[in-house]
Design goal:
heterodimer, A: alpha+beta, Dipeptide-binding Protein, domain 3, Dipeptide-binding Protein, domain 1, seven-stranded mixed beta sheet, five-stranded mixed beta sheet, 25 strands, B: mainly alpha, two-stranded parallel ribbon, 74% helix, PAP2/HPO_sf (chain B)
C-alpha cells in the first residue's frame, strides 16, 4: 500500500476494483481506507454551456457568446456554445430555467424608469416564467432596495437607485455588456417619415406616409429574420415576443409614450390621488371605444385586464398563474374598481406616482376573448399541466385588439398582414384635441403593413435593395453597412437601443450561485473590445443597464473601462490569463495539473 | 421576385449544361435510341420516379412539422460536433480567396444541381435501365433517411456556431440571393448529415459503377462531387462530421439501391429473395 499511485491520477473504478481485491486478503483497515478514497467524488473540469441565438437570428449575441467561451477556455473552464432559435432559447431560459449561461438581448420596455430592475432581480419572481428574474437571483439586500425605490421619490429615490445599481454591479446576477445601435435599412422611395430614432417601433411606424409619386402604394413591407410573429400573436407569451412591435400596433394601452411624451391614449383623462400610503388613479376612457370585432371597449375590460395579468386563471387554481410578460408593471396594481361605463379607479401597491404610472402602459385585453382562456392548457383535449393556463400557450391566431391596426392574416413562417383600423379613435380625433399630438391625428396614412420573415440580414438587405421590402425590423450586421451605402434609395438608420446585450447566469447552478465566480467571469469579458470588434463600434459598453438615463450612478459611468469590474487585460489588451486565474484561486477555486478549473462533479 | 429569379437562373444554367453534356457525353446514337424508346423507358422507370417524387413532396410538406417535432424530441448536437472537430472549418476557410469563394458558391448552387440532374438523362439513355433505377432508389433513400436524421439530430452549421470573424457565412455574404433558395428548401438546423454531400457522393458512386458506359462522366462527377463536398465546409454551411455522415449515408443508399435493383430486395442474398421488381 505504500507505493499506491496518487489518488487523483487513478480512476474511481480502479480503486473500487482494488478495494474488492483488497477485501479478500487484507484487513478491514485497508478496506476502510479504500472506501475513504473511492467514496469521494472525483473533481472534474467545470463545463458551462452558453445558450445563444444562432447567427441567422442575432449575429451579435453569437459573437459575444464566442468571445466569452474563448476566454472561459483560457482560464480553464470548458465552455460550449449552444445555438438555439430564439423561441427555443426563451423557452429553455425564461420558462424552464434550464441553462448555465446565456447571451441575449433584453426585451426592454419602452420606458426608462429604473423600476425595470424590479421584475428582473427581485427574488419573488424567481420561480415565475418570462423576463422575470431568469437568473434565480435571490438577495435580501437587493429586494429591500428594489422595494424602497418604488416607495420613494425625488432625491431619496435617486440615491436608492444609485445604491441598487452598485449592489447589482457588485453581485453581478447578469453581466450587462452593451447597448447596441439598432441598424435598420430603409427604402426611401415609397414611404417617407422614417424617424432617426427607432424607425420601426410602433409609434414610428404610425407616422409614416406614402411618398407623392407612390401615393397609390398603401402597404408598408417589413422584413424580419425571426419568424415567430407569423406563428403566434399572443401578447403575453414571453417566448414569442421580442419588442412587442405588432402587439403595440394591435393592442392599445391607457397611456402611451412616444419619445419623451406621455400621451393619454385609451384614457381621456387621469386623476391621481396620492393620499396616505395608497396611490390610486381615476381613469376615464375615451368615448365610443370599440374592439376590432365591434364589441364595445368598456371599463370592465380594463378591470379584467389587470386582474388577468396578475392571475390568468382568475382564481381557478391554488396559486395565481400570472402572465409571463409585463410582470413588473402589472405587479404594481392591487385592485381595479369599475366606477362607471367609462371610468375605473386603479389602486396601486406601495408605490409613488412616477412608478405607478408605468403600469398604465400595459396593453388592454378584451374580456370577452381572454376570459374564455383561463382554463388549463390542453393537448388534444387532455389537460397536460395544471400550472399553465390556455391563455399562456394560446397562439391567439386572430388577435382582437383595439389598436390603430387590425389583424388581417398570418401564415406560418411566410407572412403577417395587418391593416389600418378605420374605427380607431385616431381616425376621428380632431386636430384641436390637446391630448393627441398632431403627428398622430388620422395616423396611419396607409392601408396595410406586412411582415415577412426571411433567412438572414443578408437576405433582408437584398430584399430592400431589389424593392421587395421597405425596411428591416431586425438588426442588420455592421458588415453590411458598406453595402447599404452602395445601394441607391436604401438608407441606413442607426439608433441607440436600450435593449441591452447581457450574459445571464443561472445562479441556481453551482458555481454560478457564487458571486465571486460571477465577478471573475465578468472580468474576463472585454466589453470595449467586443463593441469595437463584434459591433464595429455600433454600440456602447455599459456597466449598468441604466446607463444613458439620468438615473445612472456616476460611479458606474463608463470611463474607458468598466469602473467596478475592469477587464483583466495585459499591456497588449489581451486577456490576462494569470490574473484571472489568480483571482479565482484566491476565492477558493481549484486548478488541476492541466490548468483546468475543477469542481466536485455536479 | 428574388426567389424566382434565382430559380430561373439555375434552370437556365442547368438546362444548358445538360444539353452540352448530352451531346458530348451521351452521344447522338444513344440519344436517338432514347427518343425512340422514351415511352417504354419512362413507363419502366415510372414507379421509382413516383416513389422519389412522393418522398420529395412529403419532405416538403412535413418540413415544418418535423422541425417542431425535432425541437421537442431531438438531440441538439451542435456543441458536441464542435467539441469533436474543433476548428476544422476555420482551417478550410483560411484558404479563402475571392476566386475560390466564387468557384465554390457556383459549385454549391449550380454545379450541385447539374451533378444531380444529369445522371437522370444519362442513365435514361442507356438500354439497360438498372443504373437509372439504382439512381432513383438511392436518391429516395438519401432523402428518406436524411429526414429521419433531421428529426433525431438538431445541429446548426459552423456559420451559426462560430463568431462570424472566424467562420464567415461566405455564400450568403457574397451571394445573398442564393439564401432565398436555400432557406426555402432547407432549415438552418438541418445540417447533420449534409444532404449536399450525400447526394453528390451518391451521384459520383453511381458514376463509378457506370464508368464503362460513361468514362468521362465518371471523372467529371468525381471532380464535381469533391468540389461540392469541399464547398459545403468552405462556405461555412456544414461541419466535417456532417460531410462524413453524408458520405456514409451515400454509401448505404447506393449499396441498398443497387441491391434492390439486382436482387429485388435490400438484403444481400439473391437466392432467398423471392421479391422482384413489382413492375418488371
Amino acid at each position: 500500500m505504500t507505493d499506491r499511485p496518487h489518488p487523483s491520477t487513478i480512476s474511481r473504478r480502479t480503486l473500487l476494483a482494488s478495494g474488492v481485491a483488497l477485501g479478500m486478503t487484507a484487513t478491514a483497515g485497508c478496506v476502510r481506507e479504500a472506501r475513504n478514497i473511492a467514496g469521494r467524488d472525483r473533481r472534474e473540469q467545470l463545463t458551462l454551456e452558453i445558450k445563444t441565438p444562432p447567427s441567422d437570428n442575432d449575429p451579435f449575441a453569437l459573437r459575444i457568446a464566442n468571445h466569452v467561451a474563448e476566454h472561459l477556455e483560457a482560464i480553464g473552464i470548458h465552455a460550449q456554445i449552444m445555438p438555439l432559435e430564439i423561441e427555443e432559447l426563451y423557452r429553455q431560459v425564461l420558462i424552464n430555467h434550464n441553462f448555465d449561461l446565456y447571451v441575449s438581448q433584453f426585451s426592454h420596455p419602452p420606458l426608462a424608469d429604473p423600476d425595470v430592475l424590479f421584475p428582473l432581480t427581485h427574488s419573488s419572481f424567481d420561480s415565475e416564467p418570462g423576463w422575470q428574474n431568469p437568473f434565480g437571483y435571490t438577495d435580501l439586500n437587493c429586494d429591500d432596495l428594489l422595494v424602497s425605490q418604488r416607495t420613494t421619490s425625488g432625491a431619496d429615490r435617486l440615491e436608492t437607485v444609485h445604491e441598487l445599481q452598485q449592489y447589482l454591479s457588485r453581485t453581478q446576477p447578469f453581466v450587462p455588456i452593451a447597448f447596441p445601435d439598432t441598424l435598420t435599412a430603409v427604402r426611401n422611395t415609397r414611404f417617407t417619415g422614417w424617424r432617426q430614432t427607432a424607425p420601426t417601433d410602433p409609434m414610428s411606424l404610425l407616422v409614416l406616409s406614402p411618398t407623392d409619386e407612390h401615393d397609390g402604394d398603401s402597404q408598408v413591407r417589413l422584413v424580419i429574420t425571426d419568424a415567430r410573429i407569423t406563428v403566434n400573436q399572443n401578447p403575453i407569451a414571453a417566448e414569442f415576443r421580442q419588442h412587442g412591435l405588432v402587439s403595440g400596433l394591435l393592442y392599445d394601452s391607457l397611456v402611451r409614450y412616444d419619445r419623451s411624451d406621455q400621451i393619454p391614449w385609451l384614457a381621456e383623462s387621469i386623476t391621481w390621488n396620492e393620499d396616505d400610503e395608497q396611490t390610486s388613479a381615476t381613469v376615464t376612457l375615451r368615448e365610443n371605444l370599440t374592439w376590432h370585432d365591434d364589441t364595445d371597449l368598456t371599463a370592465a375590460d380594463v378591470a379584467f385586464t389587470y386582474e388577468f395579468y396578475a392571475d390568468t386563471s382568475l382564481g381557478r387554481t391554488e396559486n395565481p398563474l400570472p402572465t409571463a410578460r409585463y410582470r413588473g408593471r402589472s405587479s404594481l396594481v392591487t385592485d381595479v374598481h369599475v366606477t362607471g361605463q367609462r371610468t375605473v379607479l386603479i389602486e396601486f401597491s406601495d408605490a409613488v406616482q412616477e412608478v405607478a404610472e408605468t403600469a398604465l402602459t400595459l396593453p388592454i385585453l378584451p374580456e370577452h376573448i381572454w376570459s374564455e382562456k383561463t382554463g388549463g392548457a390542453t393537448i388534444g383535449g387532455i389537460e397536460i399541466d395544471t400550472e399553465t393556463t390556455e391563455a399562456l400557450v394560446w397562439n391567439n391566431p386572430e388577435p382582437v385588439g383595439s389598436g390603430p391596426f387590425e389583424f388581417v392574416s398570418a401564415s406560418d413562417g411566410v407572412e403577417l398582414i395587418i391593416a389600418r383600423n378605420p374605427d380607431h379613435f385616431l381616425q376621428n380625433v380632431s386636430e384641436s384635441d390637446p391630448t393627441i399630438p398632431d403627428r398622430f391625428v388620422s395616423a396611419p396614412q396607409y392601408e396595410e403593413l406586412s411582415i415577412e420573415p426571411i433567412a438572414s440580414d443578408n437576405s433582408a438587405l437584398e430584399m430592400i435593395a431589389t424593392d421587395d421590402a421597405d425596411a428591416t425590423l431586425s438588426n442588420v450586421s455592421p458588415d453590411l453597412v458598406p453595402r447599404i451605402g452602395r445601394e441607391s434609395d436604401v438608407r441606413l438608420i442607426t439608433s441607440r437601443s436600450r435593449s441591452f446585450y447581457h450574459l445571464g447566469f443561472n445562479t441556481r447552478v453551482a458555481p454560478l450561485g457564487n458571486p465571486h465566480f460571477r465577478r471573475a467571469v465578468a472580468r474576463v469579458i472585454d466589453k470595449a473590445g467586443l463593441v469595437e470588434d463584434a459591433f464595429s463600434n455600433y454600440a456602447v459598453p455599459i456597466a449598468s443597464i441604466l446607463a444613458d438615463t439620468e438615473w445612472l450612478d456616476p460611479a458606474l459611468s463608463w470611463e474607458g473601462e468598466d469602473p467596478t469590474l475592469p477587464f483583466f487585460a495585459t499591456d497588449e489588451g489581451e486577456l490576462d490569463v494569470d490574473a484571472a486565474r489568480e483571482m479565482l484561486r484566491a476565492e477558493g477555486f481549484q486548478y488541476n495539473d492541466e490548468g483546468e478549473l475543477t469542481i466536485v462533479g455536479r | 421576385m428574388a426567389l424566382l429569379r434565382v430559380i430561373f437562373d439555375i434552370a437556365v444554367v442547368v438546362i444548358v449544361l445538360c444539353l452540352i453534356g448530352s451531346v458530348t457525353l451521351i452521344g447522338p446514337v444513344r440519344l436517338r435510341e432514347l427518343q425512340v424508346e422514351l415511352r417504354d423507358r419512362a413507363r419502366e422507370a415510372a414507379p421509382a420516379v413516383g416513389i422519389l417524387l412522393c418522398v420529395l413532396i412529403l419532405n416538403a410538406l412535413v418540413r415544418d412539422a418535423t422541425q417542431e417535432l425535432s425541437w421537442l424530441i431531438g438531440w441538439n448536437i451542435t456543441p458536441l460536433i464542435r467539441d469533436i472537430e474543433g476548428g476544422f472549418v476555420i482551417f478550410i476557410q483560411s484558404f479563402a480567396t475571392p476566386f475560390l469563394t466564387a468557384y465554390f458558391s457556383y459549385i454549391y448552387v449550380f454545379g450541385y444541381v447539374f451533378l444531380l440532374v444529369f445522371p437522370f438523362i444519362a442513365y435514361a439513355a442507356l438500354s439497360d435501365q438498372d443504373h437509372l433505377k439504382s439512381l432513383l432508389i438511392a436518391y429516395t433513400l438519401n432523402y428518406g433517411l436524411g429526414l429521419i436524421c433531421y428529426i433525431i439530430f438538431i445541429a446548426y452549421g459552423p456559420r451559426n456556431s462560430f463568431d462570424s470573424g472566424e467562420v464567415e457565412s461566405l455564400l450568403y455574404t457574397v451571394y445573398p440571393q442564393f439564401q432565398f433558395l436555400t432557406s426555402t428548401v432547407n432549415v438552418n438546423t438541418n445540417v447533420f448529415p449534409s444532404l449536399h454531400t450525400s447526394l453528390s457522393v451518391t451521384a459520383a458512386l453511381l458514376a463509378f459503377h457506370s464508368r464503362r458506359e460513361y468514362p468521362i462522366w465518371f471523372w467529371l462527377s468525381i471532380i464535381l462531387a469533391t468540389s461540392v463536398v469541399i464547398s459545403t465546409m468552405y462556405l461555412g454551411i456544414h461541419w466535417f462530421l456532417d460531410v462524413i455522415a453524408g458520405t456514409i449515408l451515400a454509401v448505404v443508399s447506393v449499396e441498398l439501391g443497387r441491391r434492390y435493383v439486382k436482387y429485388g430486395s435490400f438484403r444481400d442474398s439473391s437466392s432467398e429473395s423471392q421479391l422482384s421488381w413489382p413492375w418488371s
